[in-house]
Amino acid sequence: MGTKAKILVVDDEYSVRESLRDWLMEEGYEVGLASSGEEALKMVKEDFWQVVLLDLKMPGMDGVETLKRIKDLEPETEIIMITAYATIESAVEAMKFGAYDYVIKPFEPEEVELQIKKIISHQELVTENVYLKEELQKEYEFDQIIGQSKPMQRVYELIAQVAPTDSTVLVTGESGTGKELVARAIHANSPRCYGPFVAVSCGALPDTLLESELFGYEKGAFTGADHSKKGRFEMANGGTLFLDEIGDVSPKTQVDLLRVLQQREFRRLGGHKVIETDVRIIAATNRDLIKAIGEKKFREDLYYRLNVISIHLPPLRERKDDIPLLTRHFIKKFAIKLHKDQKTVSPSAMKLLKEYDWPGNVRELENVIERAMVIGKGKSIQPEDLPISCEPEILKKRPRALSEVEKLHIKSVLEENDWNISKCARELQIDRQTLYNKIKKYGLKPKKKKK
Predict the structure, then answer these.
(1) Which residues pair with 6 in a beta bridge?
(2) Of 10, 83, 177, 194, which sits 20 to 30 A from 310 (CA to CA)?
(3) Are 400 and 336 contained in the same domain?
């Protein structure tokens, strides 16, 4: 036992009080004594006692009344009633008012000790669970979403407002702005925080595979389905389902999702049984869904089902005041991860970081700082440690249109990696399908090799 548990003995008989005190102190407990209910209440008001051993029959305020008043003052204090055979019915009645249990005089010390140990063990478990919950909340509290700028303050306000509710949330913003972090922060601060958080990247999976991932399948549903499998909706039951890149799902999957959102039930692929689902949906996209609706690529009714509450994450170029704060955060993170000393940032390097347009947003900044922590030789990060210093065409031209910045950046990465799509997608931290879509959007083509 770490900290000594505190036990209060309440009995009008001197011999009972003294013998219990001596025995409990030998067992390592801290003991207090009270000869009446009135004295016990005074001691409960002055200090917290984990367990109270309370005599049922006492002159003045009896045990049941004392029990009620102690529970009003300290609901977490557990009370064991001490009774004689003649008053067992009264002891049982006392349990209806919150007594943990009762012991009958004369009793063996071991009997009381067993009850006390059960109580203390349970209280320690409750305390540990509260601590774990606090740690869980810390892990995905707002301190994981770094930023002090006005746009980010608005994001924090929205998270705080929406988290306690069960409303569906649509998180929008460019790739790399931290949409999943927002989803996790909402989950961690919600009543569903003890339930699962299940994430699925809709854009990374082909249509047929996405359907089985979301809804699961029964054995024999298709070739190779040699066993039944739960889908993400079942896995997330009681918790939160995060649908990333929702703008990339096919029309058929959009219909399926709409049905689940409306009816809160679905069937596995190849199955007939209707499965009810209790999940909170948080969706995210870097696409302009209003534009997609106009182009008949996204269902308007699904959009309004998802967009109950909208949280927009600003791109890093619109909150450059946060760059020093983010940089310090990533330096600290990678110093721990790489087992290195923390570095400072030279004024010239910070100037470069603040001038760059960050088409990859916070994710790109994180990668840049990790690289600088790995290759940097000095105690401070210098411009030559930053890969962005090797892209003068972007820094000099400073194109204002985001699409032009993105086009130049993707073209540069493709050419550097000889158009290896998988490698480029990993470096850009997007899935292959998204990269193909952007190549098509910007009309990018590999250079013809000279014969």
Answers:
(1) 30
(2) 194
(3) no
Task: Please count the structural domains in the chain.
Answer: 4
- C-alpha 170/C-alpha 315 separation (Å) is 16
Q: Flag the least confident range among 240-244, 304-308, 390-394.
A: 390-394
**Same-domain status, 444 and 410:** yes
Q: Are residues 177 and 43 in the same domain?
A: no
Domain that holds residue 164: 143-314
Whether residue 130 is found in the same domain as residue 237: no
Q: Distance of CA 252 to CAs 128, 257, 436, Å?
A: 46, 9, 21
Contact 6, 47 (CB under 8 A): yes
Q: What's the DSSP call for residue 332? A: H
**CATH of residue 301:** 3.40.50.300
CA 9/CA 109 separation, integer angstroms: 13
Q: Are strands 275-276 and 265-266 parallel, antiparallel or unpaired?
A: antiparallel
Distance CA 185, CA 163 (A): 8
What's the token pair of residue 417? 């990696």
Q: Report which of 71, 60, 14, 18 is spatially closest to residue 38, judged by C-alpha positions.
A: 60
- Whether the Cβ atoms of residue 228 and residue 278 lie closer than 8 Å to each other: no
Give the Å distances, CA to CA, from 264 to 133, 187, 260, 268: 28, 19, 5, 14
Which value, in Å, is the radius of gyration of the alpha carbons in the chain? 31
Domain boundary residue, one of 105, 134, 163: 134
pLDDT classification of 407: cutoffs 50, 70, 90:
confident
Residue written as tokens 């032009």? 404
The whole-angstrom separation of Cα 206 and Cα 154 is: 35
Residues 252 and 276 in one domain: yes
CATH of the domain at 76: 3.40.50.2300
Q: What average pLDDT does the segment 324-343 reach? A: 88
| Phi (first) and psi of residue 327, to 5 degrees | -60, -45
Q: Per the domain annotation, does 1 fall within a domain?
A: no
The answer as to whether 352 is a domain residue is yes
pLDDT per residue over 33-85, tens digit each? 999 999 999 999 888 898 999 998 888 898 889 999 998 888 889 999 888 76
Distance, in Å, from the CA atom of 345 to the CA atom of 324, rounded to the nearest integer, reads 9
